Amino acid sequence: MDRRIEKKTWNKKRLLSIGGICLALLLYGASYFLARGKSKLNVSADRITVSMVTKDSFQEFIPVNGLVMPLTTIYLDAAEGGRVEQIYVEDGAILKKGDPILALSNTDLELNLANQETAVFDVLTQMQNTRNNSDQNTIRQLNQMAEVENALAESGRVYKLNKALYQENAIASEDLKSSENNYFYQLRRRDLTRETLYKDSTSRKQQISQMQESYIRMRNALSLMRRKVGDLIVRAPVEGQLTSMDAQIGQSKNRGERLGQLDVASGYKVRADIDEHYITRIFSGLTGDVDLSGTVYKLRIKKIFTQVINGRFQVDLEFVGAMPLGIRKGQSLQVRLALSNQSAALLIPRGGFYQQTGGNWIFKLNEEGTMAHKVNIRLGRQNPDFYEVLEGLKLGDKVVTSSYENYGDMEELIVQ
């Protein structure tokens, strides 16, 4: 008896076909959704800035504003306080060394000078009197010494004569003894007189020496006082131009108060303000340049003022080699201060893209220039013109360097 064979609905061939179709649909759907998930934005070509990655010599530098100042400035301060009696020159005058600028009056200082002169005169008079008295006393003692020596010689003669007469029994022993005692008395008297003369002479020398030392000290003090009175006339210490004069007739000035300044006409320097962000990278000897009328002049940092005020610190730069002709005090200059040496590097121009990306990525255009997509990059050094590219781009790549402010989270730009 024949048995009916039922046909299988889900055979192997059909299962494989259905599986293939499903897989294809799945891949198509995935690619469709992935394509739709990448956000795009249409941009106009004339509203973006396209730049090319180039390779060139690169130097990191910062622009700083500098002010031309005299190479040497001497401040004029009042050495002694007083009242302004007379002004000899006006602000801006060219002075030679020693030229008077203004005169002050100080009655207390002038009175002290008069008293000091009187005291010195009194000491000098006393010293002269002491020397005269000493000379007279020495003369008296020398006369006394002469008398003592004469008495000693006479007593010695009598003693010698009596000694000879006593040996011939011509005189008594008492006469011999009396002449002997007188002779030895005169000897002791001479020795005491010599000692007294020596001590008096030494004492007088010490006294006169002390008075001379006192006189010298008082003369030095007098010279100092005269110099202080002389300082009441303020004079130019060197040749230069008087500036910032601050004095009026009748005005009182305290000791040490600023009266003005003298700019020495030996050259100029540039004092520049720099942001404190760069304070660890600035050191003496760092170079820069300034462009004046098409000529570039070199400068070098000579001094650094490390005090930070309002987020900035100052440096003094001196010209290296030729100095610009015609520059004036107070003139403003823009200096390009180099922070590194020149070296070859991949470069992209600076642009507004950095504010939104922080230099971590950029829109890179395809070869046709019709579409730009995000690429990760790494930037290095920078100057006011270029960024140094370390990773993510190669020579000849084109990138969008204008601002990304209106692009939001877009992944691609379609350039129209």
Explained architecture:
Residues 32-37 have low confidence and may be disordered. This protein is 36% helix and 34% strand. It folds into four domains: 39-58 and 343-415, conserved putative lor/sdh protein from methanococcus maripaludis s2 fold (Beta Barrel), CATH 2.40.420; 62-66 and 266-338, Elongation Factor Tu (Ef-tu), domain 3 (Beta Barrel); 74-106 and 232-253, RNA polymerase II/Efflux pump adaptor protein, barrel-sandwich hybrid domain (OB fold (Dihydrolipoamide Acetyltransferase, E2P)), CATH 2.40.50; 108-229. It is elongated and about 190 Å long. With 416 residues, it is an alpha+beta fold. The strands form four sheets. A six-stranded mixed beta sheet has the order 1-22-18-17-21-2, with no helix packed on it. The protein has a six-stranded antiparallel β-barrel with strand order 4-11-14-13-12-15. A four-stranded antiparallel beta sheet has the order 3-16-20-19, with no helix packed on it. The chain has helices at residues 12-37, 107-167, 173-230, 353-357; strands spanning 40-43, 50-52, 54-58, 61-77, 82-87, 94-95, 100-105, 233-235, 240-243, 252-253, 258-275, 287-292, 295-309, 312-320, 332-338, 343-349, 361-365, 371-376, 378-382, 386-391, 398-400, 412-415. Helix 2 (107-167) packs antiparallel against helix 3.
Uncertain stretches: 32-37
Average pLDDT for all residues: 85
For the report, how would you describe the main beta sheet?
6 strands, mixed
DSSP helix fraction:
25-40%
Strand order of the largest sheet: 1-22-18-17-21-2
- Helix/strand order, N-terminal first: HEEEEEEEHHEEEEEEEEEHEEEEEE
The proportion of residues in beta strands is: 25-35%
Q: What form results from the Cα inertia axes?
A: elongated
The number of helices is 4
Distance between the termini: 79 Å
Tell me the count of domains.
4
**E-strand count:** 22
The secondary-structure class comes to: alpha+beta
